[in-house]
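Internal tracking record. Fields below are filled automatically when a chain is submitted to the structure queue. Please do not edit lines marked as system-generated. If the sequence contains nonstandard residues, flag them in the REMARKS field before resubmitting.
Queue: standard
Priority: normal
Entity type: single polypeptide chain
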Amino acid sequence: MAAASKSAGNDAVRVIFLGPPGAGKGTQAVRLAAYLGVPKISTGEMLRTAIAKDTPLGREAGPLIDKGNLVPDPLLVALIAERTAESDCKSGFVLDGFPRTLPQAAGLEQMPGGDPRGFLVFDFEVPRDELMRRLSGRRWCPKCQATYHIANQPPRRPGICDVCSSMLVQRDDDMEAVVERRLAEYDRRTLPLIEYYGARTRLIRIDGYRSPDVVFQDLLSAVEVSA
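SYSTEM-GENERATED OUTPUT FOLLOWS
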């Protein structure tokens, strides 16, 4: 395995989070990016923003997402290349949700500063039954966007948003049958990235089946060792 290092010629900290849906990557990405003082870059958030703002990318990606189709790799690679070229990424960034496929990883490698040896890669591991519980238990308020979990973070009144008193809903993506398909898709498309990055840089396996605070301390320890 290649030794971990800073990106060639600078002190930028570039981080990739790998792991299945429900592994807690998004929560930890927000915390780590804030700790490091760098942007958290999420393709999902960027796509939702592009669709809401009706940008050219949003108009191209929106119909695909509405039909349940995947956004093509070249489109996502272009999106990330544009975002990471912005000035706030000079000191580094945390990638959440990208890359998800080998072609996306290859596209990242072709970007300025995209050498895998300049990245710290975390692989979040959580038992499959726990992933199902986490994802299928999510609830969402369509009016104010507040999120809950029926076991981990329930509303004060069952099915009612604490913030605006609207009825909570379960997103289609969080229904059990859809969750099973999402996890199977992860196994098919994203799991090969573990071997890809394991052969190119320092890949650190993180036990995500613990409290968020304990997981975060593991991340900080790994970042400090790589500094």
